[in-house]
Amino acid sequence: MAEVKEIKKKTGGRKKNSARRSSSRKKRRGNAPHWIYVICAALLSSLFLAIGYYIYFRPYFYRFRPCYGQRHYGICLPLGYSVYGIDVSRHQGKIDWAHLKENMSKEAPITFVFTKATEGGDFTDANFKSNFEEAGKHGFIRGAYHYFSTKSTGMAQAEMYIKTVKLKKGDLPPVIDIEERPKDKTRFLQELKIFISKIEEHYGVKPILYSYKKFKKRYLSEAYFNKYPLWIAHYYVSELDEDIEWLMWQCSDIGIVPGIEPNVDINIFNGNIEQLKSLLIK
Predict the structure, then answer these.
(1) Dist CA 145 CA 161 (whole Å)
(2) C-alpha distances in Å from residue 22, one per residue of 14, 27, 29
């Protein structure tokens, strides 16, 4: 009986060892080769570096390039222009308009201010009323813009803007911020044209279309849109391409302006002050 027990013990030991070796082989087969982990880690590192560069470093590199124009508001203003403005929304928080008026650059004074009014068919910027009123009180030429959404009809958005924005004599024409990529281009253009037509009819002036270069070429290239003034957003360059006909140029989104704590967009008008005033609502 002792011999039988001994044989069983030995046999059991072999089975256990065999099971361990089998399990070890399965684990080794399930693990990917080491070089795959190295490549994945390198790709992830490159991705994070690229994101960090474009978000945190690239905008600030522009500040340290040689400046051949005027350096004001923390950026190098392009040569050849004299009329400057900003655009603000609730993201700028509470603005000290008196401080802005008294401490802005005398060589490159801020002349006009656009304030965000509405977005889509049911959203009003929380700071629109105060920003719009204060801009006028402190002598800035003021305007109001609408962020066009693909989630609401053109008519609903036009009615929302008209209900919210009461433009007066001396105000700038309405602005339509168009930068939200549509899923259905045909329907998007139909709704946008409805919005533009309604706004133009109500205020009696051609609205200004705001967009960026790639969006303009991809979605707003029809001749229909060319009859409206263009406000183009294009950052970190000293001049715009000659093939773009523009009225205003949002040349930076990292402006440092007195009276406004976060960074603010800096805009250039393509003309002199008299030409700007000729656009105002009569």
Answers:
(1) 9
(2) 12, 9, 11
Q: How many Cα atoms sit within 13 Å of 229 on the Cβ side?
A: 18
What does the pLDDT read at residue 34? 76
Give me the active site residues, please.
Answer: 87, 179
Distance CA 272, CA 8 (A): 102
Say how many residues make up the chain: 282
Name the nearest CA neighbour of 260 among 35, 16, 93, 141: 93
Residues contacting residue 211 through CB under 8 Å, at least 6 positions apart: 177, 178, 179, 220, 230, 231, 232, 233
Half-sphere exposure of 73 (CA within 13 A, CB side): 32
- Reported as half-sphere exposure (CB side, CA atoms, 13 A), residue 41 has a value of 5
Band of the pLDDT at 3, cuts 50, 70, 90? very low
pLDDT tens-digit map of 69-96: 788 999 999 999 999 999 999 999 999 9
Specify the pTM: 0.79
Q: pLDDT digits over 119-156, tens only?
A: 999 999 999 999 999 999 999 999 999 999 999 999 99
For residue 142, the cross-strand partners are: 113
Report the 10 Å Cβ neighbour count for 250. 22
Angle (nearest 5°) at CA 237 between 232 and 241: 60
